[in-house]
Every structure is written in C-alpha cells, then in structure tokens.
Predict the 3D structure of the following.
Amino acid sequence: MKTIVETQLLSERSRALSESETLAMTKKARELAAQGHKVISLSVGEPDFQTPQHIKDAAKKAIDDGFTFYSPVPGYPELRQAIAEKLTKENNLDFTAENIVVSTGAKQSIANVLLSVVDPGDEVIIFAPYWVSYVEMVKLAEGTSVIVTGTIDNDFKVTAAQVEAAITPNTKAILFSSPCNPTGSVFTKAELTAIADVVARHERIIVIADEIYEYINFGDKHFSIGSIAAIKDRVVTVNGFSKGYAMTGWRVGYIGATKAIAAACDKLQGQVTSGTCSIAQKAAYAAITGPNDAAKEMSAAYLRRRDLVIGLLKEIPNLKVNVPQGAFYGFPDVSAYLGKSFNGVVIKTAGDLAMYLLNEGKVAAVGGDAFGAPNCLRISFAASDENLVEACRRIKDCLAKLQ
Ligand code: PMP
Ligand code: GLU
C-alpha cells in the first residue's frame, strides 16, 4: 500500500528551490513553437550568432588530436594561463594560473564560489534587479539573501550608501553583475570605487563581481572592481565565454580569485562535476588567444538592435523605458498595465503579463518578478531586426487590448 506521494521523497532543499524562470519561459515558448505557433522567443538571454569559425575549428581539431580524456579539474594549464593573462592585461587584475578555475559555465562558477564561502546564516547582499539564479544559489548554500534595490531613476543601480546600510555583522558577500542582467546597467569606475570604499572597511566581506557581459558594453571601457587595490584580495571576478564569444552551449566559465578560494572551488568541483568538457576548453583557448573581431562585431550589432528596440518600446503608451548601456536586454517598467484585464482575467503580476504576451501575442519575454523587479518585463534583443520589430508590434497590440 502506497502511503506517500513521490514528491515527499524529495529533500527540503529541492522543494524550496524555484525553477529558473528564464529557462522555464523558454521551455514554454519551445512547446508552443512545436505545436506550430509562430513564437518569437525573447526570453532566454543568449546570443543569436553562431560561434566564430576559428573557435569551432579548434574544437574539431581537439577531437582529432585526441583530447577526449578527463581534463585537470580547474582546467587545462594553458587555458588557465591564457585567462590569467587576459585578466591581467584587460582588467588590471594581476592573476596567475593558480588563481583561475574553469567551470561548466559561469553559472557553475558562481555556485562554486557561493558554496565555498557561505555558511548557514551568512548574508549575501544581492543588487536588484538581479540575475534569476543568484537568490536560488544562495538558498542552496543555506545563506540568506539581502536584496538591495536600485531604482529606475538611478539607472537601476545600487549606491554605495545603500550597500553600507545593508551590511550587518553577518554579511559575507556582495553579488552583482555589471553590465547587468537584466537591466543592462553598467557601473562606472567612480560608482565601483565608492562601493569598494565601503567594502574596504569590512574585512570579512567578499565581492563576487559577475562580468560575463564585459564585451557587450556600449559605453566607457569596462572597469573591474577587483582592480581596486584596497579590496583586490577579497574580490572574485566571474567571467566566461557564453556571451562575448557566442558560446552558450559550450559551457565554459571561470573565476579569478585568491588561491584559497580557487582551491576551494577546485575541491568542490572535483567532487561534483570534474573539469569541464575537454573539447570546449580547447575551443575556449582558441577564443581567448585568437582575434577579438567577432566579439566587437556582435557588440556593434547589439548596440544597433538596442536602439531599434528601445525606440519601439518608447512608442508604446505608458511604458517607462530605460536605456541599457550593456548586455542585450530591454527592461521596461510595465506597472501601468498591471491590474488591467483581458477577457475578464486580471493581469496581476509581470509574470502574468509575460504569460499573456506569450499566449496572446506569441512573444516570449520574462516577468521582472524573477529578477526582483516586479514592475518590469525583460525583453532580450539578441534576435534579428525583423523579429524584434514584429515582437514589439505584437507587444504593443497586446498591451492595447488590456482594459
Ligand atoms: N551571470 C549572468 C548575469 C548571466 O546572464 C548568465 C547567463 N546565463 C550567467 C551568469 C551564466 O552564464 P554561463 O553559465 O552560460 O556561462
Ligand atoms: N543568462 C541567460 C538568461 O538570463 C541564460 C539563461 C539562464 O541561464 O538563466 O536568460
């Protein structure tokens, strides 16, 4: 006789974990497309470009050259060395290969770091709007997320004074992305220096700087908070190949950190996944040591598309539209439409609105709820001009139908 339901066999940890909303919306969009609907998917944040040819060729060569065995857990030495050189040269970070751990995407890199530094009860200050997975990863590490919110009037950026006010004796880490997913905001050198001044006064706090969108930056040269001398030994810099080199499926990310944190991540990864795919690492090596022209061309295309999408969104009545300075997301405030209804069904949240746009307009976007910004909607502009124009037209029509 069966007395328990299957889900009761799951751990509390698993039950408490939310599904990634970016991936969930993308799954729904794929399901609708499979049923024959013409869905425009602007939900997942991923380049629509192919990986550059010389990187693909390096992967093919790696297979032919027999790189089919386990790699060292933190990555091939030459890849770690090349990453250390990149971080030293471009980001002023002063690392050697021993400071680098290569992982299966920056997603795993961030999880490794949080699991390596956060104890139960430790607080992690997360800047909102934030990337969906941060809060869930902190949960997995049994830490407590302390959300500090940047407002649209300040370009969605959290200030040093806000950080100072959020610090408690339990604060262990500060986590944010710049350029930011989902807002596209980019912290300036002056803003990061002010935050670093606060961190410098609290010697137990680690900064986890997610710089995965570094190469998709429409403004001033990228600045890494880890280059600030007063705190450089307490900054973990996260980066990867997914966005800048259009390599999302290859799954290669990395950290630059103190040797102690790098060794802890190496140990953890050695028990959970081992070194990332040998072939993907060889491709990543070709990417980081090869010409950067493709990354520059893609960034120029995103800038052009940003102007296109932001222009179109501004034409939609009652949206509050910010201009992203990096990454590839529009993040309009849609609060004027929340509380309205369609066919008698009230659209209460931005998540409801995203579902309505998907079902009614066949456009997949992501509700801001998942990013800690319940008034906003995330729209990726890593898509063709044609799809972006059509998607914005559909969004405009759908919003006009709400009463
Ligand atoms: N950080 C941010 C801010 C992201 O948008 C992404 C994209 N998924 C990641 C980390 C993880 O990237 P990946 O695992 O593909 O390297
Ligand atoms: N970073 C992307 C996004 O935010 C990829 C999906 C994910 O890993 O969450 O949409």
Remarks:
- Residues 139 and 398 are 36 Å apart (CA to CA).
